[in-house]
Structures are given as C-alpha cells and as structure tokens.
Design brief:
CATH topology of the largest domain: Methyltransferase, Cobalt-precorrin-4 Transmethylase, Domain 2
Number of strands: 17
CATH superfamily of the largest domain: Tetrapyrrole methylase, C-terminal domain
CATH class of the largest domain: Alpha Beta
Number of domains: 4
Shape: globular
Strand content: 15-25%
Structural class: alpha/beta
CATH architecture of the largest domain: 2-Layer Sandwich
Strand order of the largest sheet: 3-2-1-4-5
Bound molecules: S-adenosyl-L-homocysteine
Number of helices: 21
Distance between the termini: 31 Å
C-alpha cells in the first residue's frame, strides 16, 4: 500500500481551491458536502462555480493565491489550467505542511481524492493509487449496484442505538455479534423498506434480550478454505471469517485468504514451518477447546475440505467430548481444484468410471495402501501428500501391474497464480518432478484422464491476475496466454 487511506474532518475548515475549472467545481462540491468553507482563486469561473460565487456559497478572488494564503488554508486543491500555477501552489503548501492535491498530478500531491460511493453516513472510498482510474470506476459501478441505497439510512439508524448497545452489552465480541445479527437480518430489511418504527421496536426488543443473555458462549467453526485461490471459498466461509474472534490456521491457508479474516480477530498459526514442527494435533484440539470455553468464536481454517485428509474428524471429536457447539463448512478439496484448473476431469466416460483418493503420507501409506485396488483399470487415482514418495508410489503401482506408460501428472499449488502442471507417465514422472523442482503442496493424478490436459488446459497465470477484470476482458486478446 503506497498511501494511507483516511477520512478527514473538514467541517468549518478553510479550503483553498486554485482554478475555476469544471474539475475544480467537482472538488468544491465535495468540500461543501463535507462542510468546509471554500475560497476559489481564479481569473475565470466555470458556470457552476460562478453561480456558487454569486449566491455566496463560496468565496471568489479573481486572481492567483498568495503564498501566505496557501499557508493559512486547512487544505488545498490546485486545479488551475496553468501547470506553473499549480506547481507553485503545491510547493507553498508542502513548505507549510498543508495537505495539497494537484488534480491529475498525484506525484505533486500529498493526498489524492478517491472515487466515492456516498451512502452517508456510510462512505466508501476507492483508489488505485493512480495505477488504473478506469479499473477504479469499474469497481465503483459494481459496488454502486451491490450496495442498497438504504445503506446510509441503516448506518444512521444504528448510530442512534450505539451508546445504548455499548452500555447494555459490555463485552466487545458479544456486541459485535449483536450488531452483525441486527445489521444483516430482519431489522435491516425493515430499515431498507422504510419501516423505521417497526425496526426500532424490534431493535429495542433485541437489546433487552441481549442484556439477559450476557454470558458469552464459545463455539468452533471448522471451515474449509479451498485449495488456495480466495475466489474459490464459500460465502459461508467468508461470513464466519468475518465473525470469528480467533483464527487457527496452517500453511495451506495462504495470505490472500487470511486477509479476508476480520481485522480484529486474533490469528494463531498452528501449522508447520520449515525447521519447526507443527503444533501436535492434540495441542491444536486442546487449544480450540480452551478458547471456546473462554467464550470465543473460534475459526479453525483448513486448506481444501476439512474432512478430506484434514483431520477435521479428530478435531471435532474432541469438541463433542466437551459439549462445545460447532459447525463444519465444506471447502473445495485440492483434488477437485487441481482437476478443474489443470483441465484433467477426474472421471470421463471414455477413460475412468471411478476415482480413488489416497494419501501418500508416510505413516498411513506403507501399510495401508491397497495396491491391487489402485492398479485396477478405468479409474483415476489422486494422491494427497505423495510428492516425497512419488518414486516409490510409481514403482509399486508398476510392480502391481499398472502399465508403466499410464499417464500421470503432478499439480503444484493448484488454482493459484503459481500453479504448475507436469505431465508424463508412471515411468517418467518422478524424474520429471525432481528435475522441475516441484514442491509441496502438490497432488499426483494417475490415469488415462491425464491425457486430456493437453486439450482441456484453460488456466494460466494471466487468468488469476485478472481477478476483477470484466468477463469480456478475460476472454479478450490480452486475457489469455498460451
Ligand atoms: N484438506 C485438504 C488436504 C490436506 S492434506 C484438501 O481437501 O485439499 C495436504 C495435501 O493436500 C498436500 O500435501 C497436497 O497434496 C494437497 N494440496 C492441498 N492444497 C493443494 C494445492 N493448492 N495444490 C496441490 N495440492 C494441494
């Protein structure tokens, strides 16, 4: 982030605007809406500003500003048609540490004005830091469509009850939960549809009820975060990430996803780091219990799906023992993610009528894998945690009768911008993976369906980078490479 986002209180402050252009008039309107007193310095005024000057909504001086006038202002906009004037005004302002915005010149400015979605008192500001004003506008269009016009009313409505809620519900976490329920539920709907009196009565009742249910009650959400690409999470996961007081996460959950967790939530890393051992499973279980008993809403965020090789079952067994309420949210397991993003359908009428998921993890694998079962024809085998033993796996499969020419693939960091797909055969893949330096997390896919990758591969990094581009631009020339 190159700039600090902030909202400035300019009520009653003196704002100086150099220039009487149309562009200047738009900033003047913003300043007036925010309650500033505005003086415009310009030989000529555009019709709108001329009108404002005539009705004395703004002050007007028909000349350039002087250095001491700039220094005395609370903030300055430089929008003069003459670049030299703007440069000088900016220099004076900076010398006196007066915030200055030179329109169209972020370099010379100490602040820029974001694109604004006004649902006062709720205001959303968007900036790309000058990188792409068009993208900023596109995003604004989307948000404008998404945010009900009544949102401002809802914020104003909530503000009237803020102090009372604070007095009645002392615990911050409890209070946040209370407001989340009010602002996303039936009461909010009433405000949107203009039934304020009825909304008010419902909120009064909810406050009463909240007061009598003060004792905080913890719970645990066991949530699948999907294979790594934040776009592939569920709405439910996102909502719980916004509600949790504390989040336990591991190395399969990337930064892009953690950013979506509520900023106030405590984050506890319980995964494996290079050179360090993972928190033993029992300790994770006890930690969850301890936090929940202390009244916290605990989010256990897991890569992929919590019930696919994720020990989710073990974790909630402990919760059941302690009678702690919990919820399990499915996620897209990495096999499904990798299959779709590598263009390898796990089943296909011509090649595979079944698919088997197994773990290559040392502890589970040596004794447990059903090799005769895995070499049966017309099936796809997906191996989780198998990278380190790829050579051994290929050798065993061949020894048990699967053809050494069977197509096989490794998908590294599936669904993310760093995804890599290697294809070969049972005979060639191990050496290929070593030579390419494939690292965990990676999945192994074995079976005839792997041949489809050549034809169905659609994903590449350009796609991921296009996160908020419109569908048109994704399918346009620039969107697709290779
Ligand atoms: N619960 C998870 C699996 C946890 S086991 C799920 O449903 O996906 C960890 C293994 O999952 C890794 O060793 C790797 O084999 C696989 N894995 C997880 N994320 C992956 C990704 N983005 N790309 C490839 N493999 C991944």
């Amino acid at each position: 982030m190159d700039q600090l986002p902030a909202f400035m209180n300019v009520r009653g402050a003196n704002a100086l605007v150099a220039g009487g252009t149309d562009a200047a008039s738009r900033k003047v309107e913003l300043l007036l809406r925010a309650g500033a007193t505005v003086t415009v310095y310009a030989a000529q005024l555009c019709p709108l500003l001329a009108d404002m000057a005539k009705t004395r909504v703004i002050e007007h001086r028909a000349r350039h500003p002087e250095a001491d006038e700039v220094a005395a202002a609370a903030l300055v906009f430089a929008a003069d048609p003459e670049a030299a004037v703007n440069r000088e005004v900016a220099r004076w302002a900076r010398a006196s540490r007066v915030p200055v915005c030179v329109l169209g010149d972020p370099e010379a400015s100490s602040f820029v004005v974001p694109v604004v979605i006004d649902r006062s008192p709720m205001v959303i500001a968007i900036s790309s830091g000058g990188a792409s004003p068009v993208l900023t506008r596109l995003l604004r269009m989307r948000l404008e469509a998404l945010i009900p016009a009544g949102f401002g009313r809802l914020a104003a409505f909530a503000a009237q009850f803020r102090d009372r809620a604070r007095k009645r519900i002392a615990d911050y976490g409890q209070r946040r939960k209370f407001w989340e329920e009010v602002l996303s539920g039936a009461i909010a709907e009433k405000v949107f549809s203009g039934q304020e009196a009825s909304a008010r009565a419902a909120l009064e009742a909810a406050l009463e009820a909240a007061q009598s249910a003060q004792q905080a009650r913890g719970e645990v959400y066991l949530v699948g975060a999907g294979p790594g690409n934040p776009d592939l999470m569920t709405f439910r996961a996102l909502r719980l990430m916004q509600q949790a007081d504390v989040v336990l996460h591991d190395n399969l959950v990337g930064d892009g996803i953690l950013e979506l967790v509520h900023a106030d939530a405590e984050r506890i890393y319980v995964g494996k780091e290079r050179g360090h051992h993972a928190l033993p499973q029992e300790e994770i279980n006890t930690l969850m219990v301890r936090l929940a008993l202390a009244g916290k809403r605990v989010l256990r965020l897991k890569g992929g799906d919590p019930f696919m090789f994720g020990r989710g079952g073990e974790e909630i067994e402990t919760l059941v023992e302690y009678g702690i309420p919990f919820e399990v949210v499915p996620g897209i397991t990495s096999a499904a993610g990798a299959a779709c993003y590598a263009g390898i359908p796990l089943t296909h009428r011509d090649y595979a009528q079944s698919c088997t998921f197994v773990t290559g993890h040392k502890r589970d694998f040596t004794s447990d894998l059903d090799w005769p079962g895995l070499v049966r024809p017309n099936q796809t085998v997906v191996i989780y945690m198998g990278l380190a033993r790829l050579e051994e796996i290929a050798r065993e499969l061949i020894a048990h009768g699967r053809a050494s020419q069977t197509p096989a693939a490794v998908v590294e960091q599936a669904t993310t911008a760093r995804q890599r797909v290697l294809t070969g055969t049972l005979a060639t893949l191990p050496a290929l993976a070593t030579a390419s330096g494939i690292r965990s997390p990676a999945l192994i896919i074995i079976g005839e369906v792997v041949t489809l990758h050549g034809k169905l591969n659609w994903f590449n990094e350009a796609r991921v980078k296009d996160v908020i581009a419109s569908p048109q631009s994704v399918s346009g020339k620039a969107g697709i490479r290779g």
